[in-house]
Each structure stands twice: as structure tokens, then as C-alpha cells.
Amino acid sequence: MAHSIITVATMKGGSGKSTLASCLAVHWQLKGSRAAIIDSDPQRTIARLATREKALGGVQVTEDATEDAFKAAQRLVGDYEKVIIDTPGFRSQATLACLGVSDFVLVPVKPSPFDVDRMLDTLNILINGVSGRRPIFRCVLTQTTRESVIAKHIRSELAEAGFPVLDSEMTNRVVYAEAALWGGTPSLIDKSGPAAREIAAIADEVEQICESMIQVRRAASA
Q1: pLDDT at position 131
Q2: To 5 degrees, how large is the angle CA 162–CA 69–CA 28?
Q3: What are the structural domain ranges in the chain?
Q4: How far apart are CA 68 and CA 78, in angstroms?
Q5: Residue among 33, 48, 9 at smallest CA distance from 204
Q6: What pTM value is reported for the model?
Q7: E runs forming strands in 48-190
Q8: What phi and psi, each to the nearest 5 degrees, are found at residue 189?
Q9: Taking a C-beta distance cutoff of 8 angstroms, is the pair 154, 116 a contact?
Q10: CA distance 215 to 20
Q11: CA 91 – CA 9 distance, rounded (Å)
């Protein structure tokens, strides 16, 4: 996968945004791809994790909650294969600017009608374009109960509305909170466990989509 800026964004708090961003960064770091995180969320969730014992496995974390957070990402992308931006859980100029420079956007959503309604604000911004361009994005279900009726319904509802959804999900597992106690993620605590496998599946899907995007661009410019 080429050097990429991947933004995790939603206008709804409590969706697992910071957990998803940190888990992906640690997974890629462990796989040998240099990863960095821009923590642009004023809550500083990821920045605080990085100060704990496991320090997110050595992933580079840069704090920047200003409207120039996107510039920090652009500076790092030459030195890191994946730069993941964790944005605020609300509409802000910082989020819009980060979306404007992103190669790929992940929109986490809990399987709840209330969360979906709020998340639609994010999707409308992405579909209408940011800074004159429309970034490639995917929704990803988080904090789910696998094969539950509500998760299936929300997935179907999003697909019918034309919003692409990753096949992989982040199910609701206590290991995410347990790992965070030590500044880690499931991939650091139990790399062969079900949560680590779920993160790996999400990461693989993201990489496949990005690779396909690169091939399409190359073909278009040939």
C-alpha cells in the first residue's frame, strides 16, 4: 500500500473512532508498515494512551487539535506509510480540512438508529465533496453484537441508501477497554485473539480498496 493519509471521522461521539484509529495504526506498525497518528481530537484519547505502559507499541502520536492538523499529516506522510488522523467527534473546520487531504476516510457507526441519523451528516459532507474533491470512504460498524438483528438492519439500511460498508466489523469486546488500561490494543495484548483478527480484517479491506484506487488512477493516467 502506498503512503496514505487515512482519516477516521464522524460527527457523532462515542462511536469508537479513537479506538478504531489506534487499533489500525498499531496493527500496521506490527506488520512492518511505519504508522503515525495525528490526534486532532480535543479529548486527547489517543495522546493519553500513548503515555501509558505499552505506548501503543511505539506508534508515533502527534497532537494537533488546531485547524492546521491536516498540515501535520501532510508533513508526516513522506516518512510514514500510513498516517491516521483521529478527528473530533463533532463538525469542525479541522475535520473538514483533514477530509480534504485524505486518501481514504473511515466512518465508524454504532448499530443504532440514533447514531446512523447523526452519522448521515458526515456522509453528506463526503458525498458532496470536500475542498473540491470527493474522498473515497467506507462506513464500518463498531461495537456490534455479531449477527444481531439491529446490526444486520443498519448494514442493510446503509447499503440501500448507497453508503458503502466494510464487510468486517468491530464487535463489542471487553478486550478493547482492557488493552487501553495499559496503553495498548488487542493486537498488542492477544495478537491471535478474535478482536485482533477483526482489526486485521478491517485493515486488509482498507488496503485492498486503496490498492484498487491506485490502479484505477494509474490506468486513467496511462
Answers
A1: 61
A2: 65
A3: 4-221
A4: 17
A5: 33
A6: 0.90
A7: 60-63, 82-86, 104-109, 136-144, 170-171
A8: -85, -45
A9: yes
A10: 26
A11: 10
What pLDDT does residue 176 have?
A: 95
Residue 222 has pLDDT above 60, yes or no: no
Q: Give the sign of the dihedral formed by CA 104, CA 108, CA 113, CA 115.
A: negative
Distance CA 175, CA 195 (A): 7
Domain 4-221 is of which CATH architecture? 3-Layer(aba) Sandwich (3.40)
Give me the torsion for CA of 204, 188, 155, 212, rounded to 10°: -10
pLDDT in tens, 50-64: 999 999 999 999 999
Residue recorded with cell 506498525: 29
CA 78 – CA 147 distance, rounded (Å): 40
